[in-house]
Design goal:
globular; single chain; six-stranded mixed beta sheet; six-stranded antiparallel beta sheet; Immunoglobulin-like; mainly beta
């Protein structure tokens, strides 16, 4: 299992930590609640406005080489996990930088610090409902890190 220190950084000085939860049954990540920042998400539930983009930045340091890294993002709707279209299954290898801000690609070396920056669309066809978002970074089908956060999709 790939252990990972996760610290989420903000691109903007005004961003604040997002009050996320550990994934049930997953590996405990110290300080996860204070380290995750989703922008914009000023308070819970995060408001996901249709036809906008949500931003995330995660700083991490793997203790083993990572050959592939993908998003696994689902929205729990009425107790049923559904893939978050436009985000789930996407490769992260082209969205990683080193600490100096230089683009890097997979494989990612153990012991080095990397920064994953991304944004994703809130599509117009998403239903206007409250959801629980499950977000994991996966390597070879196993969660490297994982969190959940309540959200509300609206116009």
């Amino acid at each position: 299992m790939v252990a990972l220190s996760v610290v989420v950084l903000s691109c903007l000085a005004l961003a604040v930590a997002t009050d996320v939860d550990q994934c049930p049954g997953g590996r405990t990540i110290e300080n996860l609640r204070s380290d995750v920042v989703l922008m914009p998400c000023k308070k819970l539930p995060c408001k996901l406005k249709k036809n906008t983009r949500q931003h995330i930045t995660i700083k991490f340091k793997p203790d083993k080489e990572i050959k592939e890294l993908k998003n696994h993002v689902q929205a729990e709707v009425f107790g049923v996990p559904l893939p978050f279209v436009g985000v789930d299954g996407q490769s992260l290898c082209g969205k990683i930088e080193n600490e100096a801000g230089e683009k890097v690609s997979c494989p990612l070396s153990a012991g080095n610090t990397y920064i994953y920056k991304d944004s994703f669309p809130i599509e117009s066809f998403y239903p206007e409902i409250a959801v629980r978002v499950h977000w994991a970074l996966r390597s070879h089908g196993k969660d490297v890190t994982c969190f959940e956060v309540p959200a509300k999709i609206s116009s």
